[in-house]
Design goal:
Elements (H helix, E strand, L loop, with lengths): L1 H31 L22 H4 L9 H14 L1 H4 L8 H5 L10 H6 L2 H10 L12 H11 L14
Amino acid sequence: MTILRRTAGVVCAALAVAALLGLATRATAQQQEPPSAKAGKVPSGDLPKPLVIPDADTKRPNPVPNIPEAIEAGKNLWASQCVMCHGAKGDGKGDLAVSMSWKVGSFTTAAWQAKRTDGDLFYIMSQGHGDMPAEKRLVDQNKWEIVRFIRTLGPAAPPAPPKK
């Protein structure tokens, strides 16, 4: 029985030392992280690089026809793929964005709608930028349908013409 108690004591001591070393290592790693990476927050606005969309992508036309069925398909995809960050109204106040204190732009203004071409939106959706991850799960058709729906979120104004 004495050997069993000693062995258990040694094992407990070893586990305690290992736990303390793990905590010390974790604390050191957290101290080395930049402040914006702490507390589980994605650093909003801290873009790793400026958004540069190639001219060919900016000029890329939306192949999905601007018809109610395509807009409805985009709306359904929006509800399952985008609303958590961008909000149901496209105002950037989705539940996840608010809870994580992310700054997500609003698609609801004429100025914003005029700022981006359909090709720009498709590119950003496909490649990601800043806090927005690249969307790799959806096929191109679905992304273009979402673009059609995004155009309904702002006031009735024509989308930005392709840049020349």
